[in-house]
From TrEMBL:
Residues 422-530 form the Nicotinate phosphoribosyltransferase C-terminal domain. It comes from Brevibacillus borstelensis AK1. The keyword Protein biosynthesis does not apply. GO terms for biological process: NAD+ biosynthetic process via the salvage pathway. This is Nicotinate phosphoribosyltransferase. Residues 60-194 form the Nicotinate phosphoribosyltransferase N-terminal domain.
């Protein structure tokens, strides 16, 4: 088979090649149904070969209930109904109340996962083995299975950019598409965005604590699986970490990598000094020596100093030492003194040992002399808040006449959905600082609006008047009619973007504990719509 023909064909559109046995010409098809050969018009005799990108396998990355709902909608002839879904979270992770705090908890999420979501949407289809598996369930008819074969994402997808700061109940993704497609995508969208945003949020908080010092991501060995470690290393870099130990993330995404050495390297040699010398000789430009294998103050630091001096004599420089256990404040202060007394002022002190934003803050408070922070387990496992509860909710559907806003009412007032097709603006003051977010209905124009009163979503006593603002829409088009219209930024651009966004918030909103609640306000029209729908649904429920 001529490879060049295959290379010219978009595997996202065509999944089968029919080789005409009469004229031997290939015909590219989206399904395996036989059509007349476009070259010679023959219909009878074709060799059918599957043709799709085998590295992607997203079709069945779903919960069974999605396929069951898709089937029921299909059987009722409703599967093509256009609908709107919002994706958002309700409660920020990691935020801990301090003292007798009883009020509402603030906090933020650093949005991440869009890069993977784009790949999912672009490569979303059921391959033949997926169809075969579904057939084996004996739940779905052949007509439906045939429909699944040619199913692709055809809708509109809007999202915040990776690294954006997002607050509770604010949509970070909006999808407008046939209901079948919105249902299909739910599980993998949530899986990707929840896991990556959770980690980027943790990393962003760690960077707040590190206050610009060097941070290295070292979580690979403790991550919940391979993919999580690679995505986690990427998310950490965007959030501001300087390096990762994860070579796969370096290769796949261009995350800068670095490494020191493990205890095993010291244990293996006859003694610590020989181990340090061997490592420093091989890496004269970047050696950080791990000093806690036997005795930090008795042998580790003294041996590192010996090696540092030998390197100096040879015209090189020891980069640093690493502390990995014990009292890091005490050891780092002693280490700094010992290194300085030996004239090794440039030798940096790195520390690792179950660190996170809280231990970093505490160590800094204690005057620890640590220059480089190595962060593994507590970052990559999102140790103190292991899930982000982002949700995917239907908020509107098309009727014969128009769009109809949909609501879901919960016993818990915080869980009542904001209905309808909405836009999200961030309002900036003259100094470029974020004053609040404003959620309104799509048709509402705010270009000419001079003053907005940001109202607390649930507390009518809290409001804030904003004038002279600049309103920036936060949801940008990613897909239009199933085609990607968004150019993914480079990793460096996303990293700069995250830092720039962070700098537009007063630190009260982003601080680690008891942050102020950032104002997110609904427009009057949206509030009225919500109240009207709540009233209608409650009335209806009483009548039923
Ligand atoms: N001065 C300090 N203040 C607050 N926390 C510290 C300080 N020094 C170390 N820590 C933290 O205390 C914990 C120490 O953990 P632990 O006693 O289990 O292990 P370790 O000293 O690292 O030894 P090992 O890894 O050999 O078990 C780590 O989470 C570390 O980050
Ligand atoms: O402490 P973390 O934040 O997870 O950082 C990564 C840890 O991984 C290595 O530990 P290793 O696997 O050698 O285990 P140990 O240090 O706990 O003995 C390294 O020495 C760090 O301690
Ligand atoms: O380079 C390091 O020091 C490192 C990497 C992974 C895990 N622990 C340490």
């Amino acid at each position: 088979m001529n490879r060049t023909i295959f290379d010219a064909i978009d595997p996202k559109v065509y999944r089968f090649v029919h080789i005409c046995n009469s004229c031997k010409q290939p015909n590219f098809r989206i399904s395996d149904q036989v059509n007349p050969c476009s070259a010679c018009g023959q219909t009878a005799d074709f060799e059918i070969l599957p043709f799709f990108d085998p590295s992607r396998d997203y079709g069945l990355d779903v919960d069974e209930y999605a396929i069951n709902m898709m089937y029921a909608l299909y059987k009722k002839g409703l599967h093509q109904t256009p609908v709107v879904f919002d994706d958002f979270y309700r409660k920020a992770p990691f935020v801990k109340p301090v003292g007798d705090h009883t009020g509402e908890l603030g906090g933020y999420v650093a949005f991440c996962g869009l890069h993977q979501l784009i790949d999912i949407v672009e490569n979303l289809y059921f391959n033949e083995s997926d169809i075969e598996y579904l057939r084996s369930k004996q739940l779905y008819d052949e007509e439906f299975l045939a429909e699944l074969r040619s199913l692709r994402f055809t809708g509109q997808l809007y999202a915040m950019e990776e690294g954006q700061i997002v607050f509770p109940n604010t949509p970070y993704i909006r999808i407008v598409a046939p209901i079948m497609e919105c249902v299909w995508i739910e599980a993998q969208l949530l899986n990707t965005v929840n896991s990556e945003s959770l980690l980027m949020t943790k990393a962003s908080r760690i960077m707040t604590a590190a206050e610009g010092q060097t941070v290295i991501e070292m979580g690979k060995r403790r991550a919940q699986g391979r993919d999580a470690s690679v995505q986690g290393a990427r998310a950490a870099y965007i959030a501001g970490f300087d390096y990762s130990s994860n070579m796969k993330a370096g290769k796949q995404y261009g995350v800068p990598t670095t490494g020191t050495h493990a205890h095993l390297f010291v244990q293996f040699f006859p003694n610590e000094l020989e181990a340090f010398l061997a490592f420093a000789e091989v890496f004269p430009a970047k050696s950080i020596l791990l000093v806690d294998t036997f005795d930090v103050l008795g042998s580790g630091i003294p041996n590192a100093i010996k090696v540092g001096k030998i390197m100096q004599e040879r015209g090189h420089k020891l980069s640093g030492i690493r502390l990995d256990s014990g009292d890091l404040a005490f050891f780092s202060k002693r280490a700094r003194k010992m290194l300085d007394n030996a004239g090794l002022h440039d030798v940096k002190i790195a520390a690792s040992s179950d660190l996170d934003e809280y231990t970093i803050t505490s160590l800094k408070y204690q005057g620890a002399k640590i220059d480089i922070w190595g962060i593994g387990t507590k970052y990559i496992t999102a140790y103190d808040s292991p899930a982000l509860g982002g949700v995917h909710k239907i908020v509107a559907r098309k009727t014969e006449k128009d769009w109809m806003a949909l609501i879901k009412i919960s016993e818990n007032i915080d869980k009542i959905l904001n209905p309808g097709i909405k836009k999200v603006y961030r309002l900036y003051d003259q100094d470029g600082m974020a004053k609040g977010d404003y959620i309104c209905l799509e048709h509402e124009e705010i270009g000419h609006v001079k003053e907005i009163v940001l109202k607390h979503p649930t507390n009518p006593l809290k409001s804030k008047r904003v004038v002279n603002f600049r309103a920036v829409p936060l949801l940008v088009p990613i897909f239009e009619h199933g085609k990607r219209v968004y150019k993914t930024p480079t990793l460096e651009q996303s990293r700069r973007f995250h830092l720039a966004q962070k700098n537009t918030f007063w630190e009260e909103y982003l601080r680690l504990d008891n942050p102020e609640v950032y104002p997110v306000s609904l427009s009057d029209e949206l509030k009225e719509l919500k109240e009207k729908l709540i009233h209608e649904k409650r009335q209806f429920a009483l009548m039923e």
